[in-house]
Amino acid sequence: MPHHRYRPYHERVNVPVTDRSWPSARIERAPLWVPVDLRDGNQALAEPMDTARKRRFYDLMVATGFKEIEVGYPSASRAEFDFVRHLVTEDAVPDDVTPVVFTAARADLIDRTFDSVAGLPRAVVHLYIATSPVWRDMVLGRDRDAVRRTVREAAEHMARRAGDASVRFQFSPETFNLTEPDFVLELCDMLTALWDASPNRPVTHNLPATVEIATPNVYADQIEYAHRNLSRRDSVVLSVHPHNDRGTGVACAELAVLAGAQRVEGCLFGNGERTGNVDLVTLALNLYAQGVDPMLDLSDIDRVKETVEHCNRLPVHPRHPYAGDLVHTAFSGTHQDAISKGLAHRAAHPDEPWNVPYLPIDPADIGRSYEAVIRVNSQSGKGGTAYLLRTHHGVDLPPRMRPDFSRAVQETTDDSGREMTPKELYDLFRSTYVVTDGEVALEAWSVHEDGTGAHRFVCTLRTGDRSGDYEGTGAGPVSAFVDALTGAGLAVRVLDFTEDDRAAYAEVEVAGRTAWGAGESATAAVLSAVNRGLR
User: How many helices (H) does the chain have, and how many strands (E)?
Assistant: First the structure.
């Protein structure tokens, strides 16, 4: 492959930070999350959303707790303009939510944008222009001075149109991560002054990784440099907008917050141009897993996922972090065993911090049940099968019996090539261990305890085609039954026996073989085991 055609990031852009502080920082509070699904995500769809789908998505964002929402690019199309007007005419903006609208640096487009938000109680108007050398040279055909003039003229026009209205301003130097750091500061500081930003009416400077070019630590260095050097820093909301071209959008956003970013733009589940925008759901739940309040309500993750899939007409991948259908599922035997033991410990110590192997968060916290946590296929082990029998059917296999049943499960799934449902697992358990028509049958029986604590077992026993009356004695019903079997010519030794309020389980040695059996009573369990051993 012609790798020599490509240049490393340090040959494309200067990153001046050397005494970085972000590696030792911690994220202790959530940034302001700003979903851009209705604009950036929408423009990446093969079938852009109509007003009905946009409104459903918008209502989901409001219900989830987003406080700033990018609602469109009003000058881009009539549909975009009409949706913003729909929010105005339907009085759809709650008191704690601020809509954001997007505009290029042209007076006519700015006018159209301000026309769209007329009547909104508050809004952010977001100005953007590409600033990196490759865009200036190849796309815009402008040098730095020309780009600076364009930005100033657009910003001045925005200030005139805003007047005394409740409008705040945002600026994005598109392709920030490929732009000279001094030029970024020059443009941002110019707008901070021109728009007279203050702590009470801050400007948002949004620094996008429009196309990822390097490892996430490089983006963090770029953000830290801006964080340290922007003028009137207390009047600036430092925002980031990572994409996912290298598959590291989430890491870029997290490291950028460590480096000083206060606001993150992205999409729910990572929709967006090319490989997508950074995923706000993953970011929020990553914080949640660290004990930090994400300031979003994702307690019904499936409802959120279903709405996003409907509106985008795109599926969320089954392995998607937190929300995928399989992310809380273990097929591997070793994983299942660890999870099963972890959940059992959790049940016994519910007040301890969450600490279950392989489950970063409690699935119940996001509306998932434990039903799908452990599923059984040919890779599954004894812990998983035992867990499913116990949780779905109340069958608590003795530890020594679990490997035996696991082998039966593996033989079945190897033959079928598919996973087993909990019902199929229970049916297999019964057909394997509960034997009602074997070589030996009890046609009638009774057991009595005498005054000394000894038990006497009296029965009519059929072995093959012969029936006879037998009796046995022992310290308990099981040993008395085994003694009766000895009288019938069956040498049986009980190796293990367990009984609870639901069932009994016995492992026996008979005819040179060992076998497990189960039943509703001790006698039935031993008899099932004997019949399995005689097969």
Answer: 16, 14
